[in-house]
Amino acid sequence: MTATRFPDAASLRERVQTVLDEFLARQDHSLAAVSPDLGALMEAVTELLRGGKKLRSAFCYWGWRGAGGADDADDELIVRVGAALEMFQAAALLHDDVMDGSDTRRGRPAAHRRLAELHRTQGWKGSSDAFGVAGAILAGDLCLSWSDEMFTGSGVPDAQLARGRGIFDQMRTEVMAGQYLDMFEQVQPSTTVARARRVIRYKSAQYTVEQPLVLGGSLAAAPAELLARYSEFGLALGEAFQLRDDVLGVFGDPTETGKPAGDDLREGKRTTLVAAALERAGEREEATVRRLLGRADLDESGVADLRQVIVGTGALDHVEQLITARLGEALAALDAAPVTPAAAGALRELAVAATSRAA
Amino acid sequence: MTATRFPDAASLRERVQTVLDEFLARQDHSLAAVSPDLGALMEAVTELLRGGKKLRSAFCYWGWRGAGGADDADDELIVRVGAALEMFQAAALLHDDVMDGSDTRRGRPAAHRRLAELHRTQGWKGSSDAFGVAGAILAGDLCLSWSDEMFTGSGVPDAQLARGRGIFDQMRTEVMAGQYLDMFEQVQPSTTVARARRVIRYKSAQYTVEQPLVLGGSLAAAPAELLARYSEFGLALGEAFQLRDDVLGVFGDPTETGKPAGDDLREGKRTTLVAAALERAGEREEATVRRLLGRADLDESGVADLRQVIVGTGALDHVEQLITARLGEALAALDAAPVTPAAAGALRELAVAATSRAA
User: Fold this and answer.
1) Are the beta carbons of A99 and B268 separated by less than 8 Å?
2) pTM above 0.95, yes or no
3) What is the pLDDT of residue A4?
4) Nearest to B147 by CA among B58, B213, B57, B214
5) Domain range for residue B100?
6) Quick one: B274 and B298 in the same domain?
């Protein structure tokens, strides 16, 4: 028996980071030749990509290994495909923060705020905020193009890559569509749990777990039955993950989430948590939600009032039960999946970590 | 001798439009299955792509034909690559209009204004403008992903497509970089003709003519010498085209440009025209420019004052001379290029049309 090289979560994340760093260094080199003024734009992208859990690349990697993809030189190619997914995620976050007007991301100022601050400290002309927004839009556009460049240039042979192209394309379209629906829900007069779950499905559940996993599997020529199990596992886990994210967005510790406490409430996000609270609310509780949700100036005591409604109506319990149920479904699908034992172990670990109460 | 099928500008444009329409109809079908609420997003994209001169697809097509690419079934594949370039251009315009805060595009309301108006008339919650901006960002993101999907899915065989991939990637990165530099120049205390021309080069000159032409040539395996001539022709013509666009942005007829008169002045664009005026301005003229350029509330009489400075300093004459000189260089490069006679004729016609005084 030969020893298996078995990348743990941290070392896999490091390999993905190395691919990203090398790619960005090459781009930085080309762009510096165009103009040194592009430095701030590159920095915004580089800074963002230094953080994050890099879940999508991990699911892509294990989707491939689980389908029998070898732990040899080829596995570097799949790490590169995973890095392309992280680059796409960076684009989504850059634009999301502009659209939501978020101040922070991963505990640091969001890119548009960082660029606005540069404008301000340099005493440049015109609006600092407009400069920041435009810079972050362009930074996101660069990441979108680069994601594709990294995917196509991963070194995975064309015929093999073609098997994953459909899911890559579908993922990109559906994430944008999901983000539009998210924003659309926020401006509607009311919401329902069913509508909030539809947003979750397209914006996040498919994209966080299922699509990366199926992509990795497709590249390893996984049989249809395995891909179907991956989908079951991925959709259930992706929803559990998003629900956990929603809970952390209201009850999470800011030092761990990297976002101010109650930020989701201030932005008026129509999460399943909020929808469940509204469905269960009495008149007075409903009035509290209508009065406070989405107020940009919501203070600590307003956050506390909304938390009280979410707990008091039983919405938090309901969502915690949903998380447990979805995680259970995901793990059952994994047990039934014909994956290699190493991949089963790694995917189980990822599933539990992604939905645990710590951020 | 067999008769040559010889697509004129209008019929080529129609073929590109058909490819775009068919692609969009497929996406519309998929997105409608996700949610009917996505209709407005699709409409914004479809509406934008119905207009425009479709210059980039024309240059791509003739770059390919000029390098000996045949006028047979394969030429449909190049039309599809050209359509991918138009999809990329749509993304650039959607985001550009958000960044510039432009009200109109191609004579119609810009996408972000159209979506803000929908929000307003439906009486939805929150800020109509923020909804419009977010929708247009997402519409642009969709177009960016779709551009890549169309390029890769064009049907051009992988090995052949790989020859054009580098230029496609470079184009995307440099357009974003150029847009950032454009915005960067607008907030600097002063500008020079040299700096304004650097912006033109990356934002527009390479991208409008040179890169599509070289892309088409590369796909037809053009020899290095022809590609070098294409570059010469394309860079010179691209700059002439952008200079013409700058002149039309100040002096053009709104019914032909699709933009209100003097819109570039209102947005404070640091064009070569403005830079040339400032370099030639006396004290009083400089004061007029500093007082009026970039004022969102600039009225007819303010536009007239600025025009007067641009004419009076000789800046307009200077730029008209630059246009004539660049067009001459472009045509000389074309004469020296070993292209097929049909392509030479078509490229000459495109060059003259793209830089003529009519919009």
Assistant:
1) no
2) no
3) 45
4) B57
5) 7-156
6) yes
pLDDT of amino acid B66: 95
Tokens of A160: 């093999």
Taking a C-beta distance cutoff of 8 angstroms, is the pair B21, B88 a contact? no
CA angle B12, B18, B23 (to 5 degrees): 135
Cα distance between the two ends of chain A: 39
Whole-number mean pLDDT of chain B? 92
Q: Which 170-199 residues of chain B touch chain A by CB within 8 A?
A: 172-174, 176-177, 179-181, 183-184, 186-189, 198
Q: Is A219 helix (H, G, I), strand (E, B) or coil?
A: helix
CB-based contact B174 A34, cutoff 8 Å: yes
Check whether residue B101 and residue B213 sit in a common domain. Answer: no
- What residue of B is the nearest CA neighbor of A143? B173
| 3-class secondary structure, B295 | coil
The answer to whether residue B161 sits within a structural domain is: no
Residues of chain A positioned with their CB less than 8 A from the CB of B41: 177, 180
How far from A147 is each of A19, A84, A91, A211, CA to CA, in Å?
Answer: 12, 5, 9, 15
Where a domain ends, among A156, A180, A204?
Answer: A156
State the smallest CA–CA distance between residue A48 and chain B in angstroms: 18
Q: Do B169 and A149 touch (CB under 8 A)?
A: yes
Whether A98 and A177 share a structural domain = no
Q: Which class for A56: exposed (0-12), middle (13-18), buried (19 or more C-beta within 10 A)?
A: buried
A38 contacts on B by Cβ (under 8 Å)? 177, 180-181
A38 assigned to some structural domain: yes
B134: nearest CA partner in chain A: A99
Cβ contact B141–A38 (<8 Å) = no
Domain end among B135, B156, B177? B156
Answer whether A115's CB lies under 8 Å from A132's CB.
yes
Q: Give A175 to chain B, closest Cα distance, Å.
A: 9
Pair (A20, A112) in one structural domain = yes
Asked if residue A84 and residue A24 are part of one domain, the reply reads yes
CB atoms within 10 A of CB A312: 15
- Given a cut of 60, whether residue B4 has pLDDT beyond it is no
Helical pair B128-152 and A128-152, crossing angle rounded to 10 deg: 20
Residue A56 token pair:
């999508």
- What confidence tier does A359 reach under pLDDT thresholds 50, 70, 90? low
On whether any CB of chain A is under 8 Å from the CB of B130, the answer is yes
Lowest mean pLDDT among B23-32, B136-145, B268-277: B268-277
CATH number at residue A125: 1.10.600.10
Domains identified in chain B, total number: 2
Residue B162 lies in a domain: no
Are A206 and A317 found together in one domain?
yes
Q: Note whether residue B339 is domain-resident.
A: yes
Tokens at residue B104, please? 């109109």
Our CA-based measurement puts residue B242 at a distance from the nearest CA of chain A, in whole angstroms, of 19
